Amino acid sequence: MQFQDFFPILVFFSLAAFLSFIYPLCKGWFGEKTVAIILSTLPQKQYQVINNVMLRKKSGKTTQIDHVVISPYGIFVLETKNYRGYITGSEQGEKWTQNKKYSIYNPLKQNYGHMKTLAELLELPEEIFVPIVVFSVEANVKVQSKKSYIRHNCAKQFVPIKPPR
Questions:
Q1: How far apart are the first and last CA of the chain?
Q2: Count: domains in the chain
């Protein structure tokens, strides 16, 4: 067999490997853009929306916050997760499970870290921050939690509500 006989197979596997790497990045970007579009419809006199916020922590490491909404009701820190299927875990657990087989870092903890970093850098009390994890409508979240998480199509309805204290 010659090289040209293997070339279509080589191209196929190369393309498959590339797509398996790029697909999760595109999926996350699409979820963030969807939420950004929803948040852009909030009244601009009351809400300032900042998307894709990169911060340098005091440790020197960086962190990326998907969306920050500044409002009369507080500063909302939103983490977008464009997952599909069943998401299970506990509020305090380090890891959650997607579709009973994939381990994911607890997004409530991830977003709490974002909120804490923002509070420290702005030198504001944590009490004025409201962390929210936004899941796609294709996620079936089975997590018992007192912390907020919502679906994409509810993001606009949730943000204007004054959080309970």
A1: 72
A2: 1
Contact 133, 107 (CB under 8 A): yes
Check if the beta carbon of residue 75 is closer than 8 Å to that of residue 90.
no
Distances (CA, A) of 78 to 11, 106, 108, 119, 143: 40, 14, 10, 14, 18
164 domain-assigned: no
- Supply φ then ψ for residue 152, to 5 degrees: -50, -50
| Burial grade of 146 (CB within 10 A; 0-12, 13-18, 19 or more) | exposed
163 in a domain, yes or no? no
* Domain presence at residue 165: no
Instruction: Give the whole-number percent of the chain exceeding pLDDT 90.
Output: 28
**Tokens read off for 66:** 């998907």
Q: What is the pTM of this model?
A: 0.73
Residue 23 — very low, low, confident or very high, per pLDDT cuts 50/70/90? very low
Lowest mean pLDDT, pick from 54-63, 96-105, 156-165: 156-165
Residue 3, φ and ψ in degrees, nearest 5 = -55, -40
For 92-134, how does the pLDDT look when each residue is reduced to its tens digit (9 = 90+)? 889 998 888 889 899 999 999 999 999 999 999 999 998 888 8
